[in-house]
Amino acid sequence: MSILGVALEIPEPYAEELRVARESFGDPEARTVPPHVTIVAPVSIDPGQWGEVERHLEDSVSGVAPFRMHLRGTGTFRPVTRVVFVAVAEGIPGCEEIERRVRRGPLALERTFPFHPHVTVALDLDDAALDEAFSALADYEAVFPVERLSLYELEAHHWRVRREFRLGEAER
Asked: What residue spans define the domains of the chain?
């Protein structure tokens, strides 16, 4: 089996800023999980399904225009889950449209929680570390264009981009 994830990648220099911050809070996933907005959480697929998934993602984003994302401040899912995140302040409709289009066909998967676009900066840490992450990034801001969707594959405990799909255009 292969493990895939689908996400909107956070561009540089913001990705490095968030990775360094996540690492400073003691989150071991800081080095293995690039900063992103999750569209489809990790899921196992048969290796023979990659082509079908790639065609589906290409079709899914062909009608979605690029949009502006503004990250601002922090939020948390506590007490439901031990997560602190940087909030998406602008770009939520674009994220929701992509998520709605992607979660069909081969990726019509049941959700554990409702879709809430965000960038995780601390996960499953003790309360002191979660509180530190919440406070340290409370004034964080980043603004950038979202122009592509990334398909990730888990390899040797690290996520790597397998393929990117430009919004608004089909690659045929």
From this structure: 2-166
Q: Specify the DSSP class assigned to residue 28.
A: G
Confidence (pTM): 0.93
Q: How far apart (Å, rounded) are the C-alpha atoms in residues 25 and 30? A: 9
Per-residue model confidence as pLDDT tens digits over 69-105? 999 999 999 999 999 999 999 999 999 999 999 999 9
pLDDT digits (tens, 9 = 90+) for 100-151: 999 999 999 888 889 999 999 999 999 999 999 999 999 999 999 999 999 9
Specify the fold of 2-166. Answer: Cyclic Phosphodiesterase; Chain: A, (3.90.1140)
